[in-house]
Write a structure and sequence with these properties.
The chain is an alpha/beta fold. Helices cover 29% and strands 20% of the residues.
């Protein structure tokens, strides 16, 4: 949990526009399940601003303030997690290493001793508060241990760490009880009051350099698990070996439970059982985009393979599988063949697989069919039943909010019903922690509310230091931003709603037609091809990862399941804003008399999967919303929006607000060096079979933290 991460000067700017407290309150409601109290809100408005002002006055306005956070995901799992008011992060001026100060903010103006027989002061009395309060230094000791302990984010990092309580409404005399001889001591036990302000400013200068706050915060955020290695990069580093990813919180719980179930239910080939165990187990793991579903699945796959189990990883996405097979598994046949599709199990394997992992289960179809198959090859039973027939233990990863085709039937009820028919034990988990979009739950909620996916009222975007949004005035501007970042070293792509016809490559040279046309700006969709096209344009299944993919526009079907640092999203006229509501349109095409190529006659959706004859208006609107929800959650740092409709563009600008405040725009140039992690190239072709690490006690490097 983390409510806000901003430099002190940026927090003051945010507060001056009356956007700090509403943002904190919205984040609090999401994480804690209830509204922040009036006293909590007034404390943010008063104490945070006071602390930020002091940092700026000391010349340390670039020090980062991480507000209301838990030290670890394990801590967040507690019923009442310990949340520290502020973590100040910067660079130490002499040691040139990470410098952290843990801060407990109190608005107390007076404190008296609580007389008790036991030695040492553990509690104090605050006028106006009935119950005794714990000495702030004892709270800070708990935070210090959580941050610096074996499982804490500072473990293994060169750091300077301390802490203090700040009672800005008090004087030294009015809270002398906090600093008596028997008060707690330690590097975290300092107490500052309003009349010690100059001493506090001097300590800020001793503990923090004037610059370097962004770099220091990046180091800490990575260690806290809020900055993560993109999935494909992590897989390239590991080449699919076990102990690939560092799973955290609920992720680790789910993975451990799947592995434990496998060890209990699946036969031990070394010790055949006298009586076969015929039990079946179905795991249903639900979570939104970026909650780590694929990370869990890929880790479980690697560990089960290492233990000698037969495992397949199935998906309904050609883009996701293609990227893994062609980019990660280049030249590694065994690795490539371990990834397959839901439709690959019309005929069940004999013997059945030990484990089948089904990612993106929301893309399950009613039946496994293809226009290229003979009648006898078509599926005759529900596709979910084919998957259960294929293995003893089946794992489904599901996000019903990403269903974008009318024939996608994967739901919780569908999987529960199938498990019941097979007499399988169903184990269900829900993931909540957000690891994509910079770990910004606020951004995910903003997207869902803005598109009307949820019933929440859309609110103006508040920069939170984790994710960035901006609205371009023209497609040229959007492309310029995306190309600039890609050429600088970031991963970046342009995607669009399916609002233009899609022409297959033309002629023997496989020329791509510039179907996406906005005024004088014309670009091609990613290649509708299995092979490379003219000028080296990659086939659609690797468009997302090939360097030449930057020249084409992707759609929801080729972007789903993938991510980039920057993503430019073009909204077409299939979804436009009119007044206080969204209007959804179906497009009409015409044939260009000169080229014979299809063009737009009436703007709207040209997705052949959502034609008027296949879905009604309500379902059409739902699928279009979901498609843009997928496209707008592909970025890990920044999303650039552009709508071809002027009124919609104005609405988006109103929601997004100003472009940037004090350099928060995460361009490659603005990023600290620690955050400049280039996208990895495709690995070289391997010789022989993939190496497997069977030494379970061996720790592999690097420690890849993945969404």
């Amino acid at each position: 949990m983390l409510l806000l991460k901003l430099a002190a000067q940026d927090l003051l700017d945010l507060n001056s526009r009356d956007r700090m407290v509403p943002h904190l309150a919205a984040r609090w409601r999401y994480f804690r399940g209830g509204d922040a109290s009036g006293s909590e809100r007034s404390a943010w408005a008063e104490s945070l601003v006071s602390l930020a002002n002091d940092l700026v006055m000391s010349g340390r306005g670039n020090v980062e303030m991480i507000v209301e956070c838990a030290a670890t995901l394990d801590e967040e799992g507690r019923r009442d997690p310990r949340l520290i008011d502020v973590v100040l992060v910067g660079q130490h001026p002499q040691e040139h290493r990470l410098s952290v100060q843990l801060v407990e903010l109190k608005r107390w103006s007076r404190v008296t001793r609580l007389e008790r027989a036991a030695a040492g002061m553990t509690q104090v009395r605050v006028p106006g508060i009935e119950e005794p309060k714990k000495h702030p230094a004892l709270q800070l000791r708990e935070y210090y241990d959580a941050f610096t302990g074996v499982r804490g984010p500072l473990n293994g990092i060169e750091f300077e760490c301390g802490g203090f309580a700040y009672l800005h409404n008090a004087t030294q005399e009015s809270v002398r009880a906090l600093t008596d001889l028997d008060a707690p001591t330690g590097v975290y036990a300092r107490v500052y009051t309003g009349d010690q302000r100059e001493e506090l400013l001097a300590d800020f200068r001793r503990n923090f350099a004037a610059e370097g706050g962004a770099s220091a915060a990046e180091i800490l955020l990575r260690s806290m698990g809020l900055r993560n290695t993109p999935l494909l990069d992590a897989m390239i580093c590991s080449r699919g070996d076990d102990t690939v990813f560092t799973l955290r919180g609920r992720q680790k719980t789910v993975a451990d439970q799947i592995l434990e179930a496998a060890s209990k239910v699946l036969p031990d080939h070394r010790r055949p059982a006298l009586v076969p165990d015929d039990r079946r187990v179905v795991f249903l793991v639900r979570g939104g985009a970026g909650t780590g579903k694929s990370a869990i699945g890929l880790q479980v796959k690697a560990e089960l393979e290492s233990a000698g189990r037969t495992v397949k990883y199935a998906s309904g996405s050609r883009a996701f599988n293609g990227a893994l097979q062609e980019h990660v598994g280049y030249g590694d046949r065994e690795f490539r063949e371990s990834f397959t599709y839901f439709s690959s199990f019309v005929t069940p394997p004999d013997p059945p697989l030990d484990v089948l992992i089904c990612d993106e289960a929301h893309r399950l179809r009613d039946r496994s069919t293809s226009r290229f198959w003979k009648p006898e090859q078509q599926g005759t039973q529900p596709q979910v039943d084919e998957l259960l027939d294929a293995s003893r233990l089946t794992v489904f990863f599901l996000d019903e909010g990403q269903s974008v085709r009318p024939n996608e039937v994967g739901t919780t009820d569908l999987i529960k019903g199938a498990a019941g028919r097979y007499g399988a034990q169903l184990v269900q988990y829900d993931l909540q922690e957000q690891f994509r979009c910079g770990g910004s739950d606020a951004y995910i909620r903003w997207v869902r509310a803005a598109l009307g996916v949820t019933g929440e009222e859309p609110e103006r975007w508040t920069p939170d230091g984790l994710m960035h949004i901006e609205v371009a005035d023209t497609p040229e501007e959007l492309e310029r931003v995306i190309r600039t970042e890609a050429l600088a070293g970031a991963s970046a792509r342009m995607v669009a709603g399916y609002c233009w016809p899609w022409t297959k490559p033309l002629g023997k040279e496989k020329r791509l037609e510039a179907d996406v046309r906005i005024g004088d700006w014309h670009r091609a969709w990613n290649a509708y091809s299995e092979t490379f096209c003219e000028d080296g344009a990659p086939p659609s299944k690797i468009w997302s990862v090939h360097e030449k993919g930057l020249d084409q526009i992707g759609c929801v079907y080729t972007a789903q399941g993938l991510e980039w640092d920057w993503c430019g999203v073009i909204m077409g006229e299939d979804m436009v804003r009119r007044g206080d509501r969204w209007v959804f349109r179906r497009g009409k095409e015409r044939k260009d008399p000169e080229s014979g190529v299809k063009r737009v006659a009436a703007p709207g959706s040209f997705d052949p999967k959502v034609k008027a004859g296949s879905v009604d208006d309500e379902e059409f609107a739902r699928l279009i919303r979901h498609a843009y929800h997928v496209l707008m959650t592909r970025a890990s740092r920044a999303t650039v929006l552009y709508s071809t409709d002027a009124e919609t563009r104005a609405y988006l600008k109103e929601l997004v607000g100003e472009l940037q405040i004090h350099g928060l725009r995460p361009t490659w140039e603005n990023l600290p060096p620690e955050a400049r992690v280039p996208h990895l190239p495709r690995p070289k072709r391997e010789r022989g079979k993939r190496r497997r690490n069977r030494n379970k006690g061996k720790t592999q490097e690097p420690d890849l933290r993945l969404f």
